[in-house]
User: Which sequence fits this backbone?
């Protein structure tokens, strides 16, 4: 019974959270403006052009993933890696973050790649992506610090209050307690009944995480990483040209909103629905776009990009068995 409740919460909570935030943001919105913009105010040529980079970003991620698996002696088909990425993004729309597990399961099924090892490479991949976006964020904040300070103030997050947190004795007490719990678990790990069962999985996971050390062709790996994030950015940036009221926003404005939107989608809602809208609308208003137009932009762009994720996921599910029918 408890398992059923937990699984239900994992499914319902992200959807409920995203729905509540969207309702709060658009509770007084005139949706007839969205219909009018869709029919007469959207330049669909630019929208289709932007979607091309959304596809390329996922393809580059699949190719990079295969490169990370090679040091482990795994050589899955490139198409399987890309299609697994397509499916993983679509699966995460239903249950956030489940896609990371599903793509490892796909390679285990079709290419007999160790599930634990491939999951380890996913962990490494996420660490690399985190470092990349942190670097982009630092550069963007330094270039546009006054704007970010205004954004944090308007959203109720003040830098002085954060600094005060780190000077509080309660913060360090909580930190020490957390570290103490981790140390206790570490020393008691061998007493757990399931220790031997998970030991082999943990070793394989560790091998996957450390696979980055054996990657052949580091320049190619760096190229894939830069290409992934450049495509993500262009996927967002070119949507500015889809609407007359955003076509005048420059490259720096797009970079600021891209960074804000990237951190917003960390909140576990389907494709960042809700938090992403809040971040984009708030930042667009800082650049002089009124709240109605910013709301239209966020609603249409997020809707179209989510539809692309679904479409690619369906394609991946259909292509995988067809591409591997001779193996089966």
Assistant:
């Amino acid at each position: 019974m408890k398992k059923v409740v937990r699984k239900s919460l994992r499914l319902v909570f992200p959807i409920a959270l995203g729905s509540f935030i969207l309702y709060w943001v658009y509770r007084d919105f005139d949706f007839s403006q969205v219909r009018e913009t869709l029919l007469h105010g959207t330049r669909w040529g630019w929208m289709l052009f932007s979607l091309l980079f959304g596809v390329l970003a996922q393809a580059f991620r699949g190719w990079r993933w295969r490169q990370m698996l090679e040091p482990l002696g795994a050589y899955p088909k490139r198409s399987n890696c890309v299609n697994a990425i397509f499916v993983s993004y679509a699966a995460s729309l239903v249950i956030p973050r489940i896609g990371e597990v599903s793509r490892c399961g796909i390679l285990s099924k079709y290419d007999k790649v160790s599930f634990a090892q491939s999951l380890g490479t996913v962990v490494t991949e996420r660490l690399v992506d985190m470092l990349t976006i942190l670097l982009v964020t630092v550069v963007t904040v330094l270039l546009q610090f006054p704007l970010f300070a205004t954004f944090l103030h308007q959203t109720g997050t003040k830098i002085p209050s954060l600094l005060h947190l780190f000077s509080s004795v309660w913060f360090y007490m909580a930190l020490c307690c957390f570290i103490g719990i981790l140390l206790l678990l570490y020393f008691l790990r061998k007493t757990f009944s399931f220790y031997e069962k998970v030991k082999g999985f943990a070793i394989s996971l560790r091998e996957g995480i450390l696979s980055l050390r054996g990657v052949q062709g580091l320049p190619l790996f760096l190229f894939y990483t830069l290409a992934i994030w450049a495509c993500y950015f262009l996927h967002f940036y070119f949507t500015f040209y889809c609407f007359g009221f955003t076509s005048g926003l420059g490259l720096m404005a797009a970079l600021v909103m891209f960074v804000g939107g990237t951190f917003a989608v960390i909140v576990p809602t389907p494709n960042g629905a809700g938090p992403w809208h809040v971040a984009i609308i708030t930042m667009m208003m800082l650049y002089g776009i009124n709240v109605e137009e910013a709301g239209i932009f966020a609603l249409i762009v997020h809707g179209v990009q989510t539809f692309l994720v679904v479409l690619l996921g369906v394609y991946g599910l259909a292509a995988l068995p067809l591409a591997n029918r001779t193996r089966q």
Remarks:
- The chain has one domain: 74-323.
- The two ends are 37 Å apart (CA to CA).
- Residues 126 and 157 are 26 Å apart (CA to CA).
